[in-house]
Structures are given as C-alpha cells and as structure tokens.
Amino acid sequence: MNSAIDSRPHHRQRGVALVEFALVAPVLILLMLGIFDYARAIQANNILVNMSREAGNLAARTTANPQYIMNAVADTADPLDMADRGSLVITRVSGRADGRADVVEQYRWNGGAVRQSRIWSGCGSWSSGTCTVPYPRPVINAPVRLSVGEMVYVVEAFYVYEALFGFAMPVDPNMYSMTIL
Fold first, then answer.
1. Is 161 within a domain?
2. Cα–Cα distance for residue pair 75/66, rounded to 1 Å
3. What residues contact 107, with CB distance under 8 A and at least 6 apart?
4. Are 156 and 25 contacting, i.e. CB atoms less than 8 angstroms apart?
5. How many percent of the chain have pLDDT more than 70?
6. Domain-located, residue 163
7. Does the pLDDT at position 166 exceed 70?
8. Residue 7 domain-assigned?
9. How many domains does the chain have?
C-alpha cells in the first residue's frame, strides 16, 4: 500500500513535464527554424563574396572572355540559383588625373537575371552581354583612388535571397558583393 501512494506523485510529475514540453516545443522549433534560415543566408552571402573575388581574380589575370569567366564562377554557386535570382557584372575602369575613372568596358552575365551595375549602368545597348560604350567614355567616381592610366576590374555579384521562413529574415533579401582587382 505504501508503494501505491509513492507512485502517484511520480505520475503527476510526468504529466506536468509533458504539458510543459508541449508548451515550450513550438517556441524551440521556431527558434531552430530561424537559426537554420539565418545560417542559409550567411552561406549565400559567403558564396556571393567568393564568386566576386574569383571572377575579379580571373578577369585581372587572364585574357579569357568575360562571359566565360562569369559562367565559370556561376557554376561554382551550387546551392544558389544564379540563373533565376542572380547576376554578375564585370567593369574595367581606368584612372584619370582628377581622381575619377573612365569605364573602358562593361560585361553583364548572359546567364542570369538582368540587374544594373552600381558602378555604371548607362549602357544604351548590349550585344551578347557586352556594353557597346560610345565615345567619350563614361566617367564615374571611382570606388578606389586610381593613378592615371591604372586599370582595375570591378566585379559585382547580385543575388535575391529567398528565405524559407519569412519571419526569420526581416531584412532586405537583395545581396550584393563588389570586388576590385
């Protein structure tokens, strides 16, 4: 008889623990989903930064066609859907005496969503991803100080991130990375 009395509080404690878990579980699940989605956004941003760095490195060190370079780096963005949600732009600029820069060439990736460059987007006509720049060349405020005649490549990578759970990402989904080499 003594053992029956001792087991009742134990059964009650198990029931209380189950009710507490039922109340806390949805909050924990929402927290875990938010952390998972935020980690995916960080991964997407890291991939975008690495893509722009690699494209800048290839553009500055090779004479390969810029479309080939952009195709090659876009192929490395496996979890990102660059064809539907991303874009790449390579701009070659030359320094001027007044600290500004001339746009020499600009290329937009043919395989992605069309997004305008933040460096210069005044191209009137595109032919196979290449801007046909009229003379005089457009002048921009260079993102870095360039010496007269110094050539650099500015590679921009764009991506529109889609969160799995909208509550987890209240920030702007447009991701951007720029590399200057």
1. yes
2. 14
3. 66, 67, 70, 89, 90, 91, 129, 130, 131
4. no
5. 85
6. yes
7. no
8. no
9. 1
